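[INFO] parsing input record for 3-hydroxybutyryl-CoA dehydrogenase
[DEBUG] input buffer:
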Amino acid sequence: MINKVGVIGAGQMGNGIAHVMAVAGIDVVLKDVSNEQLEKGLKVIETNLQRQVGRGKLTEEEMASALTRINPTITDDLMSDVDLVVEAATENEEIKKVILADICVKLKPETIIATNTSSISVTRLAAVTDRPDQFMGMHFMNPVPVMQLVELIRGIATNEETFEKVKQLTTRLNKTPTPAEDFPAFIVNRILLPMINEAVYTLYEGVGSVRAIDTAMRLGANHPMGPLQLADFIGLDVCLAIMQVLYEGLADTKYRPCPLLVKYVEAGWLGQKSGRGFYDYTGDEPVPTR
Ligand SMILES: NC(=O)c1ccc[n+]([C@@H]2O[C@H](COP(=O)([O-])OP(=O)(O)OC[C@H]3O[C@@H](n4cnc5c(N)ncnc54)[C@H](O)[C@@H]3O)[C@@H](O)[C@H]2O)c1
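[DEBUG] output buffer:
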């Protein structure tokens, strides 16, 4: 039974993962590189829990006890007795490999390691650990407290017991697990990201404005959010990283990242989190930039 979880990275995804674990009664060690990052993450958790209280989904007491279950830290020392580690750090293979290789020595032999990567090979990440059989992908969707799905990805060496334990945990979190094979970007992002990239090409080629493209897909395809707004929400750096993994991993030009997406990321226009992406978020209402 998984009763204590280490979450590495307190960003958009890591703080959401810590949130849903704590609400489910699981103790959490939340690690990031600086106290500043941890404080930011904890603030988001508190705001999101408060929103759930406001909507009657949680009581004040449940919120308070969830918060006491989350222990922030900048070292690996508190990871020594966790049953599961969920790595949710920056989508960069080299960064993840260093984190995973370093954490192994701190863990109990039976601890499972899961990665929340959106696109990187689970098998390749498993290979840098001392336990590829107890390693798998646990891919939460953004925003974690709201989204139902968790994709579960077996690496080539993942054993059945590991898969089953993580599947049971997913159900305990009131989420729906779905299995995916270890191919670049798995299922959701293999389909979603090329659509977003195509929306950026549509903008780049002048087929439509930001507003026209998002309105077209919301009202014409019944998507709850336009693809450019969704890209800003996911983070344009994350979108670009996933397209690069698809492009390199599947060696097919249909996955070529749009040059305009590359340029936005190079400019530091990363979407909502940086205040500007395809929309400008510095005012009261998001304003399209093109
Ligand atoms: N953003 C999404 O919509 C989304 C959805 C599903 C999965 N993911 C995946 O989740 C992971 C995290 O993405 P995110 O959007 O939360 O990114 P983010 O940039 O919001 O957060 C990443 C966090 O990792 C921290 N970090 C970096 N190096 C670290 C280290 N060595 N030790 C501890 N913490 C470290 C950073 O300081 C930052 O707080 C990525 O693998 C991404 O592909 C993202």
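[INFO] The chain has a mean pLDDT of 97.
[INFO] shutting down worker
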